[in-house]
Amino acid sequence: NLIEKKATTEVIGGNFITTLTVNGVSGGNTTARWGKALNFSIAYKNDGKETMYDVEFIMNLSALPKEKGKSIIDWTSLIDINKGNLNGETITWTKKEISGLGQIKAGGQGTIDFSVDLISMLAPPSYKDYKIDGTLETKIGKIGNLAVAKKIQANKITIYIDSDTELESQARYYNYSNV
User: Fold this and answer.
1) Are 13 and 152 in contact (CB under 8 A)?
2) pLDDT, position 164
3) Distance between CA atoms of 50 and 5, rounded to whole angstroms?
4) Exposed/middle/buried for residue 176 (C-beta within 10 Å: 0-12, 13-18, 19+)
5) Per-residue model confidence as pLDDT tens digits over 27-69
6) Which DSSP symbol is given to 119?
7) At residue 14, what are phi and psi to the nearest 5 degrees?
8) Contact by Cβ (8 Å): 64, 104
């Protein structure tokens, strides 16, 4: 019976589809430039046959390394029409912020869009490589009449920050007399 419950949970989890994209790229790696916007989109769909209740989305943007203890994300630039709850580098949306998350019927779908800017390039940068790991977690409180407290991890996105380094090369030819 325990094995049957585990299999049921996995099937239920597979019926809720989430896709995380940043600047049009979903999953894997992408790049961004200093001072530019990161445009995120969370698409979700209840692909099951039961209504899902009390759905939460938790978006974590872990920017590393920290620059003098501060994030390379300019959190004051956050644009989120749904007004998710920002705590550190994590934004959470519940039915309080988006009433439709309280109940998502079979076939129901939606999108959460938000954007945030990177800080301007540091002069000089303290580190060689900067990146942001974006992870999305979805919590489902109830499916139909069954309380599940299910957590689903979506695809992780890593955003590498492009440097503005310019390289120059020269070729010089010398003869045997170094002329």
Assistant:
1) yes
2) 54
3) 17
4) exposed
5) 788 999 999 999 999 999 999 999 999 999 999 999 987 777 7
6) P
7) -70, -15
8) no
Here the tokens at position 106 are 């079979």
Q: How far is CA 98 from the centre of its chain?
A: 18
CA distance 168 to 179: 23
Chain position carrying tokens 């956050």: 78
In angstroms, the CA 115 to CA 75 distance is 10
Question: Which parts of 65-145 are beta strand (E)?
Answer: 73-79, 85-87, 90-93, 103-104, 109-118, 131-143
**Encoded tokens for 178:** 């170094």
Least Cα distance to 118 among 58, 28, 40, 42 occurs for: 40
138 strand-pairing partners: 57, 152
pLDDT digits (tens, 9 = 90+) for 92-139: 999 999 999 999 999 999 999 999 999 987 766 666 788 999 999 999
pLDDT at position 13 is: 46
CA 150 to chain CA centroid, nearest Å: 19
C-alpha dist (Å) from residue 22 to 83, 136, 140, 155: 18, 12, 23, 12
Helix or strand or coil: residue 28? strand
Question: Which residues does 138 contact at the CB level (< 8 Å), separation at least 6?
Answer: 16, 18, 44, 55, 56, 57, 58, 151, 152, 154
